[in-house]
Amino acid sequence: MQRTPEPELMDGLAQARAYAAADFSAGDQALIDRLSVLFPSGLGPRLLDLGCGPANISFRLAARYPDAEVIGVDGAGAMLDLAKEVLQQRSQQQGPALSQRLRFLLCCLPSPELPVACSAVLSNSLLHHLHDPQVLWRSLRLCGARGTRVYIKDLRRPATPEAAEQLRERYLFDAPEVLQQDYLASLHAAFRVEEVREQLQQAGLSCLQVAPLDDRYLEVWGELDDGAP
Fold first, then answer.
1. So where are the chain's domains?
2. Widest distance between CA atoms in the chain
3. What pLDDT is recorded for position 229?
4. Mean pLDDT across the chain, nearest whole number?
5. Residues 6+ apart with CB under 8 A from 171
6. CB-hemisphere CA count at 13 Å for 219?
7. Average pLDDT in the 166-171 region?
8. Most buried of 17, 76, 122, 220 (most Cβ within 10 A)?
9. Which pLDDT value is given to residue 25?
10. Whole-angstrom Cα distance, residue 194 to residue 23?
11. Residues 6 or more apart from 37 whose CB is under 8 A from it?
12. For residues 60, 61, 65 and 66, what is the CA-based torsion angle, rounded to 10 degrees?
């Protein structure tokens, strides 16, 4: 089926709260575990989580890499408001150490406000939201440098609408209606492996690998080189 883009931002309060309340813990932890496999020496001192949403991954990164600064970036203020609420609660319970290492930045890609010289740039389920995918790949060059570790995980577009519906029924059959609708829209908006491979070639990012993951994802990983942006 052809790609059908969806809205780039998820800024509705009800939508944000539905995502924050949903249990994505298994998938979130799987991503953290995958990072340990791909980058056994670690991710370095400054980690950037692009499209962090309510910051589920950002919090797990901060826990897994206690010596690193973690910066979560999102263009949806409603999502970041929820992330900041959780950060405040955990800081009150655990002390100020976490809030000294974890912070959030409201901005849309591309943006001159993005932090630079990041040792790792990560993203979970951002790519399919972008109407122009090159925005993400240019941001990698802007935020990173030679040796920056990169990991991007996203949905992979099924071959047919029927296959998308089957995935929805398999994984979100008991989820709130707003999540089911968003999930189906995201599957229609996602890219295929061959499309992402072409995007990387166009962006001068042949240093990165892309491959299918499980029955519904794809992943991009590697380290940045000195290629042209």
1. 13-157+191-223
2. 50
3. 42
4. 91
5. 183, 216
6. 13
7. 94
8. 122
9. 82
10. 31
11. none
12. -60
Is residue 130's pLDDT more than 80? yes
Class of the CATH domain delimited by 13-157+191-223: alpha beta
78-87 pLDDT, tens digit per residue, is: 889 999 999 9
Q: Cα 225 vs. chain centroid, distance in angstroms?
A: 21
Digit-coded pLDDT (tens) for 22-60: 667 888 999 999 999 999 999 999 999 999 999 999 999
Taking the model in full, what pTM does it have? Answer: 0.92
What token pair was written down for 103? 């912070």
Q: What span, in angstroms and rounded, lies between the C-alpha atoms of 205 and 192?
A: 17
State which amino acid sits at residue 194: E
Q: Which residue has the tokens 């590697």?
A: 222
C-alpha dist (Å) from residue 68 to 46, 57, 143, 222: 6, 14, 16, 19
Token pair belonging to 148: 């920056």
Find where tokens 């122009």 sit. 132
Angle between helices 177-189 and 13-21 (to 10 degrees): 90
Residue with tokens 């932090």: 115
* Beta carbons of 136 and 194 less than 8 angstroms apart: no
Find out whether the peptide bond into 110 is cis, omega within 30 degrees of 0.
Answer: yes
